[in-house]
Write a structure and sequence with these properties.
By secondary structure, the chain is mainly α. It has 11 helices and 2 strands, in the order αααααααβααβαα. InterPro entries: LIMR (IPR008075), LMBR1-like_membr_prot (IPR006876).
Length: 419
């Protein structure tokens, strides 16, 4: 009996070591890629200066931004890795080389991303901003440590302010929550704060994704010229969301929910098998790209668009925070719309608003409506542009508004060309 207990403990130890090594290798690769990306956009003059103190502060802040960006990339890859891992285990159920790919590894990866996302949003990024803007308290000795002290004090004041706002908001929404003590800070208030941030990210997705889709259409060209490739993923997304709306009305299991123990390799998360899972992965990444395009194309956030070798550190911090908010909301966004049936793992499934049927249903309806409207508008403008070009009205002087040209003139011009 003791021998069996020892073997079980050894197996658990080896599993934990293996999962730790895999997570470290994955995060190291993402960190290096993120560092190369930020190095491409950073303003070199801020890191090569005569002031050694400023250069050191900027380098430390850049390392924090690199960490945040790597967490954002890992959050984007959460669902694709989970879905593909399940399909690999279904395809090779008895393969010895695939035994490391299990539910414990995937669950641990989700928990690490949730933890590091909280750490980056609540502590690292505010500290990086205060650190770069601080100069030390008046009368104190100048140096890097003086800036650290000032940044820590400002961060503590900001944390008290945010926690006070969260406590008041939670007390207004739930009467019994006001009795929570500070001992529940980690178990309740921080997840509650992150739930609000995730809700903000999901709403940002709702606004940016349709705008990004229309922007991608205008960049890739007219739909009349290349209609077969550019709009297919969007049409598939809209159809899947409409199907999810019907499921929400008929089946309560379609509601997004959390899952504590993922059983990978048992069944496919798509009714079409591996092909459907591959389509889900493509759609998830497609929606993420379209949301990023829409975010940087919107008038409100257009000023954050990074420029090669000309992006200052404050803009880099703002970009990292924005991308982390979007990427950490991607799993919730995809599951809420029914793009995938993979349930949310760990603390991602503990968001309070996920269990509200009206919020989920209204969100699906708004996404389908806004995306369909963007498609219709894009097609309408493309048709109008082609008609103007075909009838030769694009050669009109700029002082003449093409929108004021009567329909009879368009018709007469078209008939004359036909004759």
């Amino acid at each position: 009996m003791e021998t069996d207990d020892v073997s079980v403990r050894e197996q658990l130890f080896h599993n934990r070591v293996r999962e730790t090594i895999i997570c470290v290798l994955l995060f190291t690769c993402l960190y290096m890629v993120s560092y190369l990306i930020l190095t491409h956009f950073k303003k070199t003059a801020e890191f090569i200066t005569d002031d050694v103190e400023d250069a050191t502060v900027n380098k430390i802040a850049l390392w924090m931004c690199t960490f945040t960006l790597s967490v954002a990339v890992c959050a984007v890859l959460l669902l694709p890795i989970s879905i593909l891992s399940n399909e690999v285990l279904l395809t090779f159920p008895q393969s010895y080389y695939m035994q490391w790919l299990n539910g414990s590894l995937i669950h641990g990866l989700w928990n690490l991303v949730f933890l590091f996302s909280n750490l980056s949003l609540v502590f690292l990024m505010p500290f990086a901003y205060f650190f770069t803007e601080s100069e030390g308290f008046a009368g104190s000795k100048k140096g890097v440590m003086a800036r650290v002290y000032e940044a820590v004090v400002l961060l503590l004041l900001l944390a008290l302010l945010v926690l006070g706002i969260v406590w008041v908001a939670s007390a207004l929404l739930h009467d019994n929550i006001a009795r929570k003590s500070l001992y529940d800070l980690w178990e309740y208030y921080l997840p509650y704060l992150y739930s609000g941030i995730s809700l903000f990210g999901v709403l940002l997705f709702l606004l940016c994704t349709p705008f990004g889709l229309s922007r991608m259409f205008s960049v890739t060209g007219s739909l009349l010229v290349k209609p077969r490739v550019s709009h297919r993923p969007t049409v598939v997304c809209v159809l899947m969301v409409c199907f999810n709306v019907l499921e929400l009305l008929l089946d309560e299991t379609a509601m997004p929910r959390g899952m504590e123990d993922p059983h990978l390799g048992m069944a496919s998360f798509s009714m079409f098998g591996s092909l459907g899972a591959a389509v889900q992965v493509v759609l998830i990444l497609y929606l993420m790209v379209s949301s990023v395009v829409g975010f940087y194309s919107s008038p409100l956030f257009m000023g954050l668009l990074p420029r090669a070798q000309d992006t200052n550190l404050t803009e880099i911090i703002a970009n990292c925070v924005s991308l982390l908010i979007l990427s950490s909301a991607l799993p919730v966004f995809s599951r809420t719309l029914g793009i995938t049936r993979f349930d949310l793992l760990g603390d991602f499934g503990r968001y309070n608003w996920l269990g509200n049927f009206y919020i989920v249903f209204l969100y699906n309806m708004l996404f389908a409506g806004l995306t369909s409207a963007s498609l219709i508008k894009t097609v309408t403008w493309a048709v109008q542009r082609e008609l103007i070009r075909a009838f030769g009205l694009h050669r009109l002087p700029l002082t003449v508004s093409r929108s004021t040209v009567p329909f009879r003139l368009l018709l007469a011009s078209g008939l004359s060309k036909i004759q």
